[in-house]
Amino acid sequence: MFRLHLNVFIMALASRALGLAFDGAVGFGAIATGGNSGTTVHVTNLLDSGSGSFRDAVSQSNRNIVFDVSGYIQLKSAVSLSSSLTINGQSAPGNGIGIMGGEISASDKSNIIIRNLRMRQGTLDTDTGKSAFNMGGASNVILDHCSVEYGQWDSIDAVGAVNITVSNSIIALPIGQQFGAHVETGPSTFYRNLWVSAHNRQPLSKDNTQYVNNVVYNYQAGYTSGNTGGVFSHDIINNYFITGPSTTSSKNAFYQMAADQSVYATGNYLDSNNDGQLNGAPDNTVGSSTVLSKPWASTSLGLATMSAADAVTYVLANAGATPRDELDTFVVNVVKSFGTQGTLYKNQANTGVSNGGYGTL
């Protein structure tokens, strides 16, 4: 255990020397400094609060959080993060760590790094106005290899957020509004994520956005700019949209792409025949938006190292918190049906997954 925690600390120092949140961090959130060389704090139990709890560990800034326990932490109320935190979910032993039944909020905070954490709100949270993860008004935030499921308001709420990255993550099965992510202000980077069975907002991008090598499955509306009330640019590169039983119109892979938006779209594919095979065709039609001849962000093409088809293979094998648990396995297997399985849920228990739908760690 000590060796694992030491390795986490050494890797953090190495990434700081490179100016990255961690080795391999990408996008606008990669500048997050996290806990820097601050205090290493151990989560030693699965209690909602008190000494050794996750809530207590994140209550002060300049901390690197490591886990001596595995399993679910069930929240009795939303937990608020402090600024300048690194949450190292990969340090948890066994099957990893998860947070269930409440919102994790980084609202109005800055410089937060979260890796390998399961955030699963669900109906155990009686506050339907909250999201699984809220970073409204936050700045310099990166989520990597996280699993965000059963959000009630949104899976990820990033209204007013500045410099964020969500990478290598699973954003799936939102309940309540059934929305994926809502981003305003930005800029934001969404990279190599798996989006599954949402009504809309995958994401809703009211900001300048990089959207590269994502996989969107069983959508009712996919990438959305909406009636933004703002003029923004969107780099949408090498993503794969796959329809499912809940998809009412395959054309809504790009949704509400308004005339005041500018879009660079290339290498995107759409599989709309629901035949159990991945066999889509190119689709880079972005509504009435202005089509850009080159990306608005200088780093976007450098991120797009995989074709859309290769991104499907990679994301299905690697997205989400590790080690992959029962719920994420369920989500990935639904996607692997390539059009024949999937539904939009209002209650996590309806999935049939154990532990009332949350899965067992």
Q: Keywords, please?
A:
single chain; 361 residues; alpha/beta; Pectate Lyase C-like; ten-stranded mixed beta sheet; 5 helices; globular
Task: Describe the protein in words.
This protein is an alpha/beta fold. The chain has a single domain, classed as Single-stranded right-handed beta-helix, Pectin lyase-like (Pectate Lyase C-like), CATH 2.160.20.10. The chain has helices spanning 2-17, 54-57, 300-303, 308-318, 326-335; strands at residues 39-43, 63-67, 71-74, 79-80, 85-88, 97-100, 104-105, 110-115, 118-120, 133-134, 139-144, 147-149, 156-167, 170-172, 181-191, 194-196, 204-212, 215-217, 223-224, 233-237, 240-242, 254-255, 262-266, 269-271, 281-282, 290-291. β1 (39-43), α2 (54-57) and β2 form a beta-alpha-beta unit. The longest helix has 16 residues, at 2-17. The protein is globular and about 55 Å long. The model is unreliable at 6-15 (pLDDT under 50).
